[in-house]
Amino acid sequence: MSDGEEKPDGFSFAGIAAGLKDSNKKDLALILAPENSICSGLFTQSIVRASCVDICEQRIKKSSGLIRAILINSGQANACTGDYGIQHTLFATKEVSQLLGINEEEVLMCSTGVIGIPIQIKNLIDNLPNLVKELKTNSLQNAAEAILTTDLVDKKITIETFIEGRKVKISGFAKGSGMIYPNMATMLAFLTCDVGVDKEEWDKMISIAVKKSFNAISVDGETSTNDAFIGINSGKKIDKKFLSKIQSGIDIVCQSLAKNIARDGEGANCLLEVLVEGAKSNSDAIKIAKSICNSSLVKTAINGCDPNWGRIISAAGNSGIDFKLDFLDLYIGDFQILKKGKLNKYDSKKVANYMQTRMNGKYLVEDIVSISLHLNSGSEKGTAWGCDLSKKYVEINSEYTT
Amino acid sequence: MSDGEEKPDGFSFAGIAAGLKDSNKKDLALILAPENSICSGLFTQSIVRASCVDICEQRIKKSSGLIRAILINSGQANACTGDYGIQHTLFATKEVSQLLGINEEEVLMCSTGVIGIPIQIKNLIDNLPNLVKELKTNSLQNAAEAILTTDLVDKKITIETFIEGRKVKISGFAKGSGMIYPNMATMLAFLTCDVGVDKEEWDKMISIAVKKSFNAISVDGETSTNDAFIGINSGKKIDKKFLSKIQSGIDIVCQSLAKNIARDGEGANCLLEVLVEGAKSNSDAIKIAKSICNSSLVKTAINGCDPNWGRIISAAGNSGIDFKLDFLDLYIGDFQILKKGKLNKYDSKKVANYMQTRMNGKYLVEDIVSISLHLNSGSEKGTAWGCDLSKKYVEINSEYTT
């Protein structure tokens, strides 16, 4: 399968079935970046990390971001696998480097899937020549499929714009919260951009984008052993005054992927979008919004189409960020629930009906439940995303699998 | 109804139905402490607090803990009720003080129930004379019932010991995580002790006990607008060398109530008890244990009797506390799962069977799923408690109530 859209110049992608998953679905992906590409990565903050994550960090640092290839496997997360973890990562990246004729230090590896079971290394190695052969500029779709675990849909986006007559493209793909035993949600996301940006600047831009996207979503408040976001740029540089335009593009790609992940959370029926305005800082706003998205009580209320504003305000109150109850304006959809902290007259049946409609709306178009909270204490704002908490979530995650 | 057990000397209790709840169940409680009693209180850290909580804090501080009475109502939480909040609290505590012939500053008030709806103040005030008339030394049971919302069982405990021939008693009662629309879990707990302890010492002792009990439980990670723990002591003082014995007693009472609350979490089938040993500090150990108790993925795995150790380790890794994966010993029940970070041979069917048995075991006797994690990095330990996450939890909290 190939994509219709034009991808960032110089990058090629591959995704194949290498027999790592029992399902025989695609499970091995590769991204090849042009020479002199600049790479930044942000990785799980968990103490328990897969060793492939450590190697990613080390190699990006050591090479000052001069990374050429990223190998990604699904099926086994290669975490908590003792000495196998690092051995298999080193072995696989070395093989890839030899096939591509590059330095092994220029190859990264990300894994997602079952924890505690060694990677199916023989199948992986045997299929590397085939994987490399499949590298094409228009195979991003295959790569996006190959990194999925039990995600219900693939998650990818390409955007383009013209800057001084030059066509500029940014592509991203990601996987979200699939579950395989014994496992947890893992987030992997990759971004490519065909405008050259210096390492230091790129680090900043990636970090800004992640703060407003992947770090602003929550499916179930869990951080995985393998979470990773890697962004690579390559190509002719651009006048500094246009960098803000590139930043906007990266933000759009990251937010789109992040929303896709939240919406595809286990058992979810809607995307929950929480906007907090009137905060003292953007990060305060995001913290409050995230606290609301993270609340089991808010998430179950949404699942039940119950405009339970007390839970929303209480979750905001638990964010650790100071605000005045008497200043709050709260909206669910277009319905104002609180006005300067006091209950506004609203038709709770209409609000419930709004939620009900959204719970059954068209995927990522009309299935967004919006909550907005104005603190009236500053001029900054921020958004976070989540999903409802359903019986299906419990079912998926409590399935008897041993 | 009166209790069989002997309660702390000098304290009396009452609990009646005052028409605050639609169910006509008991909904108004009173604790009367002897003159010169010493009171300490710990309250919700949420930014959104009921004004009765503010008044509790102010009065305890202003009087240096010289508190005589605590009025507690269930039915309405008196939070997010605008000016009514403080007016009703002041009115009710003033009335109580006049009926008891004490200073209004010596009366505290705690509320739990529906948020955003004013307290049924007329019913409350009309019933105060009756409440005061009901005060008896052996009516703790009535008080314990009157503070419940949708708790399935009442939660109370009295312990006694002899110190140099003197009989010493400590009693406590609490309510946990009931739900009424629009509402969230509220925890209220009260402790009385008939040994006199100075304010400064008592503050410390209460704070130590709470850290190891109420602050170490999680039903769904939510903090309420009204959470409160209040401990009062009164009576002859005791040689300082015996204070550690009193501390142990307070710890036992608080932990018993805390475990009761965790076990009675919505939809729960078991008590989850997580012991973390070999930590650098007690608070590190509790943080890790709590992170495990808080994990939706661990809680659903337990609900499914799935010995999903990857989720346990991952939750530990998200606690923010540093540890070495290679040092970890992990047990579920008596089954060793990890040995110095490596998978131990165990019969996963037997582990699943252990969990299954516990999920159907006798209430708070044989229904405890134990997880223990040894970090092998220090000599401190700590325990936290939670419960499984069931479809019933989602059902209870997503019920369509508007």
Q: Outline of this structure?
A:
The structure is a homodimer. The first copy, chain A, is α+β, with helices and mostly antiparallel strands and about 400 residues long.
Q: What's the CATH C level of the largest domain in chain A?
A: Alpha Beta
In whole angstroms, how far apart are the ends of chain A?
A: 36 Å
Gross morphology of chain A: globular
Count the strands of chain A?
A: 15
User: What is the fold named in CATH at topology level of the largest domain in chain A?
Assistant: L-amino peptidase D-ALA esterase/amidase
Mean pLDDT of chain A: 90
Please give the oligomerization state of what you see.
Answer: homodimer
Helix fraction of chain A? Answer: 25-40%
Query: How big a fraction of the residues of chain A is strand?
Result: 15-25%
Site (Involved in the stabilization of negative charge on the oxyanion by the formation of the oxyanion hole) (chains A, B): 112-113
Active site (chains A, B): 186 (nucleophile)
Main location (chains A, B): cytoplasm
Function (chains A, B): Catalyzes two activities which are involved in the cyclic version of arginine biosynthesis: the synthesis of N-acetylglutamate from glutamate and acetyl-CoA as the acetyl donor, and of ornithine by transacetylation between N(2)-acetylornithine and glutamate.
